[in-house]
Specification:
The protein has 13 helices and 8 strands. The chain is an alpha/beta fold.
């Protein structure tokens, strides 16, 4: 494959400190009055040392409860209301047989302005939640906003979660949706040359795993662009915590548990597989990846592994942009009222405009922050 050509759209300078609003959000979450959070963390730490079905399911319940407030934040944000009113919601299912007979549910958000268009851009999305928590429905307001603002049809994939569904079958759920959308572009009113795949956090891992499958099966041409947001990438978290950032060190206990006991079907058997840890894909596989943009935050818990992947993809000729938003933490991409969230969103919108729409009809991009921010 020929090397992709970056437009070098962004030139952020690291700030070295969390933004004030991010620090305030984190301090509120850690406040003494949130006694239930402290108790939940203590119980989780105890369960991290165990590995039996009962303990693992208790741990999963804690993780899912801990993620629930993020869904509430997305659903209550006034920022998304106008976009919600300007999109139409439909759905489809994609039949699969890689792990029993299962129809993958997919919510579809179409801007009313594109209702009669027959060459629309598809934006296929895997939601966050560490691949063990949250659901496609939790991200509906955010993705309706994406649909309307990015001028795309969003396909919000409700892939099966771990540990009920283990690697690689949740990855294959997402992969099969990509294949389905690509095979039905005429009936779906899509431009077959403009399919975007994306995922954030655990959804970034799901999307990355699907990229590995596309590369292995020589199907990369199905995808115009891949956008990975704060993605889970590899097993760096199993290394010595003394060399980690504060955020990486703080997340080491639960991320080791998630990878080893919840996502993997057999950790020892799969730990070298790029379907479990996509960052371990060979150079030959990386060279077949779709053109890729990685969106990161300066203080994200996955910053080191994402940076390593960006460096490898750049060498493989498949990296378009590696964006690191200054002063931002992992949750910045999901917290609409933060300043860094607006920067993150504006960068995403610019990426879609510059690498997908290009010479199409004008897509207005309202950038509120200089890209040297």
């Amino acid at each position: 494959m020929s090397r992709v050509k970056s437009k070098n759209l962004f030139n952020f300078k690291p700030s070295g400190v969390l933004d004030d609003d991010v620090k305030e959000m984190e301090s509120q979450a850690e406040a003494p009055e949130h006694e239930e959070v402290v108790q939940m963390q203590a119980q989780a730490a105890e369960l991290e040392q165990k590995n039996d079905e009962e303990s693992n399911m208790k741990y999963v319940s804690i993780l899912r409860a801990a993620c629930a407030p993020y869904a509430d934040v997305l659903k209550s944000s006034p920022k998304f209301q106008e976009s919600i009113e300007k999109t139409t919601n439909t759905s489809l299912t994609v039949p699969t047989s890689h792990d029993g007979e299962f129809d993958v549910p997919v919510a579809v958000y179409t801007p009313t302005s594109l209702q009669n268009d027959t060459k629309r851009v598809a934006f296929i999305y895997a939601h966050g939640g560490g691949a063990v928590a949250m659901s496609a429905a939790d991200f509906e307001p955010l993705l309706q906003h994406y649909a309307e603002e990015f001028n795309v049809v969003v396909y919000n994939v409700d892939y099966r979660l771990a540990p009920e569904t283990r690697c690689p079958n949740n990855v294959k759920d997402f992969y099969e949706v990509i294949k389905y959308v690509s095979a039905h572009t005429d009936s779906l009113g899509l431009d077959p040359a403009k399919i975007v795949i994306s995922g954030d956090s655990g959804g970034g891992y799901i999307c990355l795993g699907a990229m590995v499958l596309l590369a292995q099966n020589n199907e990369t041409a199905l995808v115009r662009l891949a956008i990975l947001g704060v993605p889970m990438v590899d097993d760096y978290i199993f290394s010595d915590t003394l060399a980690m950032t504060v955020e990486e060190r703080n997340s080491a206990g639960y991320m080791r548990k998630v990878w080893k006991d919840l996502i993997a079907a057999d950790f020892e058997e799969q730990k070298s597989s790029p379907l479990l840890f996509p960052g371990k894909a060979s150079e030959e596989v990386l060279e077949k990846f779709p053109p890729t943009v990685i969106m990161e935050c300066e203080f994200d818990q996955y910053i080191t592994e994402a940076t390593r992947l960006a460096n490898r993809l750049r060498r493989a000729g498949r990296l378009l942009e590696f964006v690191v938003v200054p002063g931002a933490g992992h949750a910045s991409s999901l917290t609409p009222e933060l300043k860094s969230n607006e920067v993150f969103f504006s960068c995403l919108k610019t990426v879609v405009k510059e690498y997908v729409h290009e010479n199409d009809r004008e897509l207005t991009v309202a950038i509120k922050y200089d890209f040297n921010y």
